[in-house]
Design a protein that fits this description.
heterodimer, A: mainly alpha, 4 helices, B: Four Helix Bundle (Hemerythrin (Met), subunit A)
Amino acid sequence: MTPRFRSSPWAPWTGLFVGALAWFVDQQVSSAGNQWDCVALGGPFAVIVGVVCIAVAAAGGVASWRLRPDVGETQNRTFARIVGAGSAAIFILAIAFGTWAGVLLPGCHR
Amino acid sequence: MSRVVGDLSQLPAAGYRLHSLWGWATLGFMAIEGTGFALAAAAYVYLMDSARQWPLEGKPPDLLWGSVMTLVLVASLLPNFIVSRAARRRDLAKTKAWAVVLFVFNLAAVLVRAVEFAHLNVRWDADAYGSITWALMLLHATHPVTDFLGTCVLTMILFTHPIDTERLSDVDDDAVYWAFVVAAWIPIYLLVYWAPRWAP
């Protein structure tokens, strides 16, 4: 984690924004892929996309969480850090549910 | 020992709306996202009710682009209805043509939404009013963007893949979801653009 990242006002929000983006990408890529070619881009593809997106969201959450309080950290920054890490956890849950559908359902089952 | 208890071979392999798995998925999507909209709207009203003035500082969002967005979305319901009906009637030529028209409306909505953000007259981190206004707008913005991408993929599929009932059912589901996006926008439009003008 670079000093420049640590000092950025956006840094505490990393988990929120990266988590939301990961969820969005997971939903779009896995559903569009399934509609495009349910045999080649079916269940296993959705699972791979889901796992990658979970890893990305987790990295965002960890980045928020690891911005440990510095001396003189404002309450707003502390709040943003906690929201960032907590929301990443929620987005991971959302991605996991969608990914689980890829495990349970055949890609071409409508 | 196994025995035949029924012959299901005559049943259709695919169906529309709640006769398809994707129809149920779309319904679940709308239930979850509708709850998200309701929670964000409740937060907006709570903050507005607690404030001495609303907006806390500055002026309300410019009406023009929010109203243009509302007009685009309401007008899009017509091609949306036509494409949905054509898909359910398995009229492929009409479905293709109107899917392109709907795609143009989706694109217009995404572009107008991008302009709207520049006319909110408040930064997202300025104060509680700015944060909840941007939150509501972003929350809704994900929907035109999501549906624009979905319509884009489905329209390409209509022109590049063999089309069966499953595909036409996907088009119909997409149309149902777009109607939800439009319906969700009306209360958000009233909150973001009119509530600051009506608030004492």
